[in-house]
Design goal:
Enolase-like, domain 1, 810 residues, 6 domains, FAD/NAD(P)-binding domain, single chain, 5-stranded parallel β-sheet, alpha/beta
């Protein structure tokens, strides 16, 4: 395929994150050119405050150095500002005369600091706080100057003030409002924060309006004058009073701007060839200045640039954490409230703790925490998901650990986090970085993680989350406290990882022996642990461990989906979604004979017979004379296909046959959770391969394989794994990945959550880079499948077992 040209204007966090997401989805789709106005590679602006305070070096903030761009084949133009876009010719031009043509253009021009329009704003010694240039200016001033005034008591203003104080300057914060961080805190929490900062030597002037900046005969700032006539000495003035979207380039090229460069839910501007992300953007009238929404936008933009076309950005609920070491502060959602909400508060001024939770109906809509922010991430998740909290309301204030199983609070938070999710706000460390360090460097303790990644090395509020990630990666080998991971259930104190490890190391094949070895409190187990233990046994020792039907969920015991009226749903298997007149006649005959009230086509291209009585199930299976569709099991469900090259004008490969071969190759596969596959005959993706556990997309030169998609309650886009040439490679690669998932995932853990836990890089290393290991995994899968039989046919042949389906007459 001919590669398209993508030009990115802006080398900051939003633009480069879009590229990282794009390269993971479609690494060969574009020739990429990046223009950056600064002379450095992409760096973490969140960490500028630790650089200013002396806690970090600037080099430690670099996210992508020049070598990274070269390794990705990206043409990088540093220290060049794009000054013009010719949309008719599809060309951009820089201030140094460099031109680049594009098929798609991504604008990530960020924002400009707002400078108060007061006399003296142009004096020497007046600086904004947005980039590393500003930090270097302040560091130089701190070496020669004494009195600093920071105008603005928001996040950046307070971080700048703290950093300058740490450098030995006398610092006063001037703020127009009645309390600090009025957008992030209520007044009670802000008072506690101010008291803490005053103890560090900072001074505050609240409800003060700047009238002018005064200079000396050298053109240098010497003082600040307020509306009330009061003057304050200042030989450094930092303006941190807000930002404005940088839309000058967009406006000059005729793109529609209103409070930012206007984009739709796919991050497209009014010109469909031009996308935009970051602080320059206005989405549904909102412009965001925090990093989390920008990364969410980046993911959506990358999805559409890659041609998947299924992601939507619908705005963000934001959370805030102050990056001042030793100060724990968190807020999210609507923490102020109004007449339609109610607030629960906890205040301990002496202990320096304040909590406020705002509820609207049955939902948590806002949280404001000071001094104890350990549950901030959990509250934020409750706010984003809109989960009803009425049942846990009485304990809500006391956090996740106080609620336990009743509110799903005891679950491992890290398992559902994306690799890109930030774990350590102080140092900007994401989950993927921690997972990669654990696996590549063989880490087994939090202290080792601190040393290699800096996560949990500052304020320490993320230590518990880091422990969870560690336990997810190395299981029982993790050197953490016992609360590092939740037990499987109340029958035991052991977690999933420990149980799997014991089964393998002790070669246990019977549930009773496993329970005795681990001192199970309840020797019969329960409905939570028995299905998990049964799966771990049969997946670890196929052919040796006996499948315990008593430990199966009801649907798997009767091999059909129970419905709310007590009847059952039967879905026969149609290989790759392909059927024939004979099968269709049998389905129609069964529907007539057994008076099936509904016959429906499923989303997986199968036919569902709904409303079948339990006693009729064996007869229905026998008369259908088709294999079980396993639609009821934690197993392979379907392989969805499009028409492909056999009939479609756009098809590049025979996707239908590929789907049939895959489904037959994997038939009978039980897994930790349900598994769905899809094969598309071209990148148009008619079979929705981009949101399946395993998706295969045909291209001219072979097949692209994606993993970890999910079309459920929370849609997840599958991640690119590898491109292969032959159908045999598709079978081996998909089978190897699914066997790795079968062997390592926890029971009921979907592929997307498994990937979030172990990291895509680790899976690639074992599936893509290790050919021998891939072959062994595939062989182990086929060995396990050799013991499986079609459960419908097995029940039909064992006629005596039909009594399970008979209804006793009373």
């Amino acid at each position: 395929m001919v590669r398209k040209k993508l030009v990115v204007v802006g080398n900051g966090m939003a633009g480069v994150r879009t590229l990282e997401e794009l390269l993971s989805l479609a690494p060969d789709a574009y020739d990429i050119t990046v223009f950056g106005a600064e002379p450095w590679g992409n760096y973490n602006r969140i960490l500028l405050s630790p650089v200013l305070s002396g806690e970090q070096a600037f080099e430690e903030t670099i996210l992508n150095d020049e070598a990274w761009y070269a390794a990705q084949g990206i043409c990088l133009h540093l220290n060049q500002t794009v000054t013009a876009i010719d949309r008719s010719r599809r060309v951009v031009r820089s201030d140094k005369g460099i031109e680049a043509s594009y098929d798609r253009l991504l604008l990530a021009t960020g924002s400009n600091p707002f400078i108060l329009p007061v006399p003296g704003k142009e004096l020497k010694g007046v600086v904004s706080y947005r980039d590393y240039h500003d930090v270097r200016f302040m560091l130089d001033a701190a070496r020669h100057k004494q009195h600093a005034v920071v105008i603005g008591g928001g996040l950046l203003g307070l971080e700048a003030a703290n950093g300058l104080a740490a450098r030995g300057m006398s610092v006063t914060v001037v703020h127009l409002s009645a309390w600090l961080l009025e957008r992030q805190l209520d007044q009670a929490a802000a008072r506690l924060l101010q008291k803490n900062l005053e103890a560090r030597g900072l001074a505050f002037l609240l409800e003060k309006q700047t009238e002018a900046l005064l200079g000396n005969d050298k053109g240098e700032v010497r003082a600040i004058r307020f509306k009330d006539g009061h003057e304050l000495p200042a030989d450094l003035v930092v303006m941190a009073v807000g930002i404005r979207p940088n839309t000058a380039l967009a406006e000059s090229s005729g793109l529609y701007c209103h409070r930012g460069l206007v984009v739709n839910d796919t991050m497209q501007t009014y010109d469909p060839r031009v996308y935009a992300v970051g602080e320059c953007v206005s989405h549904r009238g909102m412009a965001y200045g925090l990093v989390a929404p920008l990364f969410e936008q980046a993911k959506v933009a990358a999805n559409h640039l890659a041609g998947h076309g299924i992601a939507r950005y619908q705005g963000s609920i934001t959370s805030t954490k102050l990056k001042v070491t030793g100060i724990d502060l968190f807020s999210a959602g609507d923490f102020i409230g109004d007449d339609t909400t109610e607030a629960i508060t906890l205040a301990d001024p002496v202990g320096g703790v304040y909590k406020k939770l705002v509820l609207k109906g049955e939902q948590l809509v806002g949280a404001c925490l000071y001094g104890d922010t350990g549950d901030g991430a959990w509250y934020f998740r409750l706010i984003r998901e809109g989960r009803a909290v009425n049942e846990i309301r009485d304990q809500l204030m006391f956090g996740e650990s106080a609620i336990g199983d009743s509110g799903h609070a005891g679950e491992n938070r890290s398992a559902s986090m994306a690799d890109s999710a930030e774990v350590c706000g102080c140092n900007g460390v994401c989950k993927g970085t921690i997972v990669k360090a654990i696996r590549e460097k063989g880490l087994f303790s939090v202290d080792e993680i601190k040393k290699h990644t800096k996560a949990a090395s500052s304020c320490g509020s993320c230590t518990g989350l880091v422990e969870q990630i560690l336990v997810n990666c190395v299981g029982g080998a993790a050197d953490v406290t016992p609360k590092g991971e939740k037990a499987i259930c109340g029958c035991t104190e052991h977690n999933h990882a420990t149980v799997r490890k014991v089964i393998r190391e002790q070669h246990l094949t019977e549930m009773s022996a496993l329970m005795r070895y681990l001192n199970w409190r309840n020797e019969d187990g329960c409905a939570t642990c028995r299905p998990a233990l049964n799966y771990y046994l049969i997946s670890s020792w196929p052919g040796e461990a006996k499948d315990d039907a008593r430990s199966r969920l009801v649907n798997e015991r009767v091999h059909a989906n129970i419905q709310k009226d007590g009847t059952y749903s039967v879905i026969p298997r149609m290989w790759g979604g392909v059927t024939n007149p004979s099968e269709l006649r049998r389905i129609a005959d069964v529907a007539d004979k057994y008076q099936v009230p509904m016959v429906k086509v499923t989303g997986g291209q199968r036919i569902d017979l709904l409303g079948i009585k339990k006693e009729d199930l064996p007869h229905v299976w026998e008369e259908l004379a088709m294999p079980s569709g396993h639609a009821y099991g934690k197993s392979l469900r379907t392989v969805k296909t499009c028409v492909g090259s056999e009939f479609c004008r756009f098809g590049t490969q025979n996707s239908t046959q590929m789907g049939i071969d895959l489904e037959k190759d994997l038939f009978g596969m039980w897994s930790p959770a349900k598994v769905k596959l899809a094969v598309s005959g071209c990148p148009r993706n008619c079979s929705e391969a981009g949101i399946k556990d395993v998706g295969i997309i045909a291209v001219d030169s072979g097949w692209e394989i994606y993993i970890g998609g999910n079309g459920g309650i929370k849609t997840e886009v599958a991640q690119f794994l590898v491109k292969v040439k032959t159908a045999a490679e598709v079978l081996e690669t998909c089978g190897a990945f699914l066997q790795l998932y079968r062997e390592e995932a926890f029971y009921l853990e979907r592929t997307v959550h498994y990937l979030h836990r172990v990291g895509l890089d680790g899976v690639k290393q074992r599936i893509v880079e290790d050919a021998a290991g891939r072959s062994e995994l595939y062989a182990r899968l086929h060995f396990a499948l050799s013991f499986e039989q079609d459960p419908w046919q097995e029940r039909i042949k064992a006629g005596a077992l039909r009594r399970e389906f008979e209804v006793l007459a009373l």
